[in-house]
Amino acid sequence: MREHKDMLMRIAVYDALSESERREVDEHVQTCPTCRERLLTYQRMDSSLRRLPDVPPPRALRAAFVERVHRREKKGLRSVFTLAGQGMALVTTAVLLVVLVGVALRSGPLASLGKRPTVSSGAPSTPTAAVERTATTPSASEGLTSPVFSIGSGGCWRPWNWDKEERLNLQITRVQAQRTDAGWQLTLDGTYETQQPFVLYIVAPTKPRQLFDINLQKAHRVALSPRRGRFSVQIAVPETAETPPGVTLYIYSPRQDEGLLCPLPVQALTMYNLTRGQDLRALAWEKIPVRFNMDACYMTSFPWTWEALPTLALKVTEVGIAPAGKGGNWVLRVRGYYRGTEVEDGRERLNVIDAEGHPLLLLWSRRTEHPNVRDGSSTMEEFEEYYLLGNDVPSRVSLVLSSPQGQRTFWQIVCPIALDR
Amino acid sequence: MVTIIAPRLSFLVKTFITEEARPVNYVLSQAEHASSSERAMDQPTDVVIHLFEEHHVAVFNYLRRVLNDDALAMDLTQETFLRVLDAVERLNDVRNPRAWVFRIATNLAFNALKRKRRFAWLPLFGKDQVQHQQQFTEGVHRRLVIERALARLPAEQRSVLLLYAYYGFRVREIAEMMDLSESAVKMRLYRARERLREVLREMGEEP
Question: Closest partner residue to B207 among A45, A72, A309, by Cβ?
Fold first, then answer.
């Protein structure tokens, strides 16, 4: 019996056996059906295990890690500078003492009394100009202009622990875009109001899909102190055949050690001004036959947490497009109902992405709750949302339902909507 | 100290993926011939970020399977590479940096599991509400079944099985990683396989 167990243990590490051991096992399994069956079972299980897909980590993981590494690096440098500063102070004091003693000796002890040493002119001046680089606070009379983009308007990928406590109001209030040989020169003006420190990184992609895969080392960095303030950033946005022109805002919260990722296509940013202030409902709407099938919905790759597969009801009742503004822009309207899970931290979030996965800019949204179908854990909600499409009407967009913020488990369900006319 | 080591480490990182089997000293002797410009551009943080780029997907997936908690896996993936940064000078003495990174990840995972036993995150939905299985193709269904069965193994067994069968580490390497004897690793591996087989049968699936 013991011999049999020894053989099973060898079978458990069959791949790691030496040639002679493996030969012994091979000979044994010829005559022992139990061990033969077990060897095949283990090999089948290994094969299944090896086929398990690796889930891509959330995009924010890399950015958060790099930020933490650089913070450590800066902390290290700061301590070095602190030590150096202390050393400098000691040296300066010693020099002062030596000079004072020298002056005292030269002038005599009585002559030095009441005189100030003249060596202070060599001391470094206070770097007042350098500390004035933070954003200035707007005066109360200026107010906030109508935003081009607001983090509250959707289109951002929120990590699950980016909760309501963050209390950040950030808006891009003006975008100036100039064509250059290499792409665009963008000037982004914005305002913010916060009670906690944040760091805003603005990055222009240089590779496809980099709208989501940001390199903080090459980012424009704006420290957002706990107050109201404004910022202005100039950034060159390259445009190649394979690179969608745009910028990504990565709003990092040191408190949460997490960031909010907001990819913004340049076209959406520059065109938004054309539709601002228009009554979207009064546009000339063209209804598109709804071809929306729940079975076509799929979960995005992160996470592979099937245990947390949500139960949802979703129905799109109307899809329409309308021309808007003078620039040949189109606006998309999606109406429908959904019923999801209401948890302490909120509800599922809804937004629309284009075929490349970039969130469309939400222009306006209305939600109407229908309490008559409330069953204690979920509520049917009617939605009506308007998104900016840009110059072209794509053949397909996707409705994305994301897990409520604050949840430990993060999922997204993507439901394609055909826009064929 | 760090500034002297950093360029060597960067070369090591660039090299070990293809020259894993060779001793580190050999790699370092090659590094002596690296161009001065290549040496000048790297810092320990660059080395660690490079290591992160190479391995964070594997480490993240390993951790989430051992911990059954994606959010915690994300935290510990970062923590793993921050520990690497803290001990970056030791990379010179490390024969297999990938195994070293996994060793740190394993230690962090088991420490977290010890703490986690005091409380548990509840799933958002009950298991009985999981539906739509029939929508998946057979291959996806099998993967789903294996993921679930794996999640029901004790963490120690799950970890050994993943390191051996999924990540391809040798028994000796796993023994070093987990501070176990090789025979203990083999025993754990055997038990893990047997348990997985039982769980699959309980689920009505072919092992």
Answer: A45
